[in-house]
Amino acid sequence: MNLISFLTFHDTDTNLGGGTGGSIRDAGGAFGKMEAAHEEQYFRKLQQEQLKTLKKHHDDEIDAHESEINRHKEAIKRLHKKKKEIDERDD
């Protein structure tokens, strides 16, 4: 379940132990509320894990881009050096 589905699913009153979430929750009462609490806990944990995974993915992408930037900077330095050598030969 992605983050949007999670937020949409948890935005309705029926998901808070009231009903239409299964036979136990349809019955309401303490068991329905306990079931709703367990589901909330599960989805909260799932969302935290998804966010952690997303942050790591972004960190990995940042590292890859920074590495590529450094590679390009080194290539630029090499080209400037070659250009300078050519300019010195022409003089």
Automatic annotation (TrEMBL):
- The main place the protein resides is mitochondrion
Q: Where is the composition biased (Basic and acidic residues)?
A: 58-77
Give the subcellular location: Mitochondrion
Instruction: Write one Gene Ontology MF term.
Output: ATPase inhibitor activity
Lineage, top-rank taxon, reads Eukaryota
Matching Gene3D superfamilies, A to Z?
Single helix bin
Which residue ranges are recorded for the region named Disordered?
A: 58-91
Q: Which cellular components does GO assign to this protein?
A: mitochondrion
Q: Which keywords does the record carry?
A: Coiled coil, Mitochondrion, Transit peptide
Q: Give a Pfam family name.
A: IATP
The entry sums up its family as follows: Belongs to the ATPase inhibitor family.
Q: Which PANTHER family match?
A: ATP SYNTHASE F1 SUBUNIT EPSILON
Write the protein's name: ATP synthase F1 subunit epsilon
Q: Which organism is it from?
A: Stichopus japonicus (Sea cucumber)
| Phylogenetic lineage | Eukaryota, Metazoa, Echinodermata, Eleutherozoa, Echinozoa
